[in-house]
Amino acid sequence: MTAQPVLSARNIAKAYGNIHALKGVNFDIHPGQVTTLFGENGAGKSTLMKILSGVVKPTSGEIVLDGAAVTFANSTDARNRGISIIHQELSLARNMNVRDNIFMGREIIGRSGVDFAEEERQTRLLMAELEEDIDPLTPVEELRLGQQQIVEIARALSVNSRILIMDEPTSALSATEVEVLFKVIRDLTARGVSIVYISHHLEEALQITHHAVVLRDGAMTAYAKRSEIDLEWIVRNMVGENFDLGSPPEGYAMGETALSIENLSVPDAAGVGFSVVDRLSLSVKAGEIICIYGLMGAGRTELLECVAGRLAPSGGRVMLQGRDVAGLTIAQRIARGLVLVPEDRQRDGLVQTMSVGQNLSLASIGAFTKGLFTSRKAETAVVAEAIRKVTVKTDASGAAPIGSLSGGNQQKVVIGKMLATNPKVIVLDEPSRGIDIGAKAEVFRLLAEGAKQGLAVIYSTSEVGECLSIAHRIIVMHRGRISAEFDHTVAKEKIMAASGEAVAH
């Protein structure tokens, strides 16, 4: 006999003007179980979670908590009733340390004010539970993205919620960190905590799911128990058909070497003499697509950021069409045709105060600027072409705020911004992070089309399945070096083994 739901959504609808983000959604959250929400970007998942956690009020419908209809005044009201949320986009104060972020707004008060020692003690316990060696007094801005995600999770766990909503909690985590999080989730559900889980990592999410809900265009298209579903069921209900992420583009001759990385070394940011990239050599031809796979800490991000000019090498060189780029700034490398799509689109890829169009035209603004004057006509043409090319779901003028777009469409804006510069080489660090399967397919289609036009493409990923999509070659990194090279016919297990990842048998 199934226990009564701890929370139920009844005919929840949300409209923003003429846009209906949710259309009468119904589902239950059961005590001590994981309910997973699947759906493409823009399907309404995050809007629904914001309603359940008191961040947003529904246009109509009701929330039933412990058998009684409730209305949340705000997120604090929901949290006081035992509902917490881990948002997809990190909400940490980067200039504050880990301890202060975790207890911000609900400080522990002692006899003489805030009890910082007790907060630090509890923070260390939370870090130990998550098996992460992070000092509570470390400023958040000094942590890598995956560690910042761990801090976000720790903050939610510190509240001791009855219902914990996790919106893309693993988007920046390594495979090892994901396993630790799943262990924490199993421990929480064993204690009766209910989890609402949102993820674009479909196979990963199936490991912990008890009930699955699928949303499409704001409406619920399917609901089932774990025993009744598989990967094909999820994809079919999400997008209406089962499709893959593409295959390596064929039917054209690759050109000359576009980018050559020669014996490149990148020092550790802490300055302890350790090289995170160690004498690495790699080249990519015009029209070729290379995937770089590796676990967290393998050196993928540092390699790509050094190539793009964001990090300085300690040895070796980067050659763009036979010319050394040493001494060139990021802007100068962009002008020469070498561009980077960074891992953290919110921090490094977008300007949140600008519109969609302003973000799209930002990297190529020099092409339609003369002196102090900008040609609006030329800029408008660039923006319209970029919106068409990368299929951003927004108005044709690009006047909408960048924050109004879904995560997948924001990522396409970052890619479109760089493609608008007409690059010769594009490097992308985790281009599919936090976007759904449909948006992933569109991103990879863009890259494949670019390769057919002679664009050299290097992208990194921590998902093995993405290695076997459009890449002509797969480069595996382990501890700063290339440990193996494969073509797209290789088995997943060989890629994982070359990366140092444990492979289940």
From TrEMBL:
Cell location: Cell membrane
Looking up Gene3D superfamilies in the UniProt record yields: P-loop containing nucleotide triphosphate hydrolases (3.40.50.300)
**InterPro entries the record matches:** AAA+_ATPase, ABC_carbohydrate_import_ATPase, ABC_transporter-like_ATP-bd, ABC_transporter-like_CS, P-loop_NTPase
| GO cellular component terms attached to this protein's record | plasma membrane
So which domain of life are we looking at? Bacteria
Chief place of localization: membrane
Q: Which UniProt keywords apply?
A: ATP-binding, Cell membrane, Membrane, Nucleotide-binding, Repeat, Sugar transport, Translocase, Transport
Q: Where is the ABC transporter domain?
A: 7-242, 259-504
Q: PROSITE patterns from the entry?
A: ABC_TRANSPORTER_1, ABC_TRANSPORTER_2
Q: How does it sit in the membrane?
A: Peripheral membrane protein
What Gene Ontology terms describe what this protein does at the molecular function level?
Answer: ATP binding; ATP hydrolysis activity
Name of the protein in its database record:
Sugar ABC transporter ATP-binding protein
Organism of derivation: Cypionkella aquatica
